[in-house]
Every structure is written in structure tokens, then in C-alpha cells.
Amino acid sequence: MDALLNLLEENALATHETLAAQLNTTPDEIRKHIKQLEKDRVILAYKAIVDDERAKRTHVKAVIEVRITPEREGGFDRLAHRIAQYREVQSCFLMSGGFDLLVFIEGNTLQEVAGFISEKLSTLPGVLSTATHFNLKTYKQQGVLRQKPETEQRLQISP
pTM of the full predicted structure? Predict the structure, then answer.
């Protein structure tokens, strides 16, 4: 039922009745299937996408490129899981290319984020280097545009 997952990704608040109507099944079948997907950890969480500016929240967000040394018989996994455990870490991905991990972090202040990088992340055995990029402005987040596009206005032509 990949179609159910697609619908839930578009709108996790859709009722079982709405989903059942869209998928030509019953609300009970939808309910059972969602419970099974949650039990199997196919569905990991339901989260709201919040516009921090409109909510008047002043979080500092950064993306960190991390180069690490793979461990024998563990590869990148053990250290990546350790990094992912920190509360500041929002997402952590193994990547191809010039660095190994891409880590998304969030803190209340610039000093908090800098402290995490210099005191926790960079000092871990196996971390070779980091490169930090701070989020200055968000235009689109998880497939959702943050602002409605402005209508293009042309200058009037005068003779």
C-alpha cells in the first residue's frame, strides 16, 4: 500500500475515512494498516513543519560536513549512531563525495551551536574534520514552500 504512504506524506492529518475513500477501502483497513506500519517502524513519526519566523522562534540551524575514520567491522555506523544521539542533532546522513556524514543541528544560540561543534563533535575519536554552514534563510523545507511566490510585476512602459 505505497499509495497510503504517499497520501500520509502529503497530509498526515488526513482522517481514516478520507484515506479510505481515496484508496477505495474501509477506514478499519486503513487504521489496521497504519498501526502495522507504525509497529514495523515504516512510519517513524508525525511532525509539523513550522515557520520559525512566524512562530517568533529564534533557533540557530547549521549543516555540518563531517569526515570520519571508518572502524574495522563497523564501518561508519557506530560513530554515525553516536553522533546522531546528541539532542542538538536533527538529522544525520552517510554521504558519498568529499565528506562522510552530513549532520543537521539546531541550537538556541550561535554560542550553543559553536560549543556543540568544538566541545562534543570535533573531539570525538574518529572525527577527522568538520565544515559548518549556517542556515541564513529558509525558502523551502521538506517539500513545503515557506512563502507564497510574489507575483511578477513589470515596470510600466511610458512613451
Answer: 0.81
